[in-house]
């Protein structure tokens, strides 16, 4: 154990064991003790600062862990929501395809009905024209017969 005073405890022990005449002076020991007490005080202050820093870091760590937990939970909720929305989107796409097919069938059926209606209109028109021709022929025959009958009656 050496320090700034220039001697250590081993020097003191050797001096007493060796019977030497070199005993440290009381003032040097006081100086050494004060220096050690000052060092102890500095170390205690550093320990307190480090404890305070450690507590702050522990609080910050706890805060960050809480925030990380909350973010993880939020991430999980959004992931679940995303999956749910994806399923809804897929269901909507299937429904869209189904409705598009149904619409296509309806359009085809509508086109077929329109064609049938057009055919029916044409048939009726032909029948009407045929009927009108027959009616005109009957009227013509009637007029001819009427004229014949009128001519064949005696005139009075």
List the helices and strands and how they pair.
Elements: H1 9-17, H2 26-152
Note down, in words, how this protein is organized.
The chain is an all-alpha fold. The chain has one domain. It has two helices and no strands. The protein has helices at residues 9-17, 26-152. The longest helix is centred in the middle third of the chain and has 127 residues, at 26-152. It is rod-shaped, with a radius of gyration of 60 Å.
Q: Unreliable stretches, pLDDT < 50, 5 or more residues? A: 1-5
Query: Could you tell me how far the N terminus lies from the C terminus, measured between alpha carbons in angstroms?
Result: 174 Å
Please describe the biggest sheet, giving its number of strands, its sense, and whether it closes into a barrel: none
How many separate helices? Answer: 2
Structural class determined from secondary elements: mainly alpha
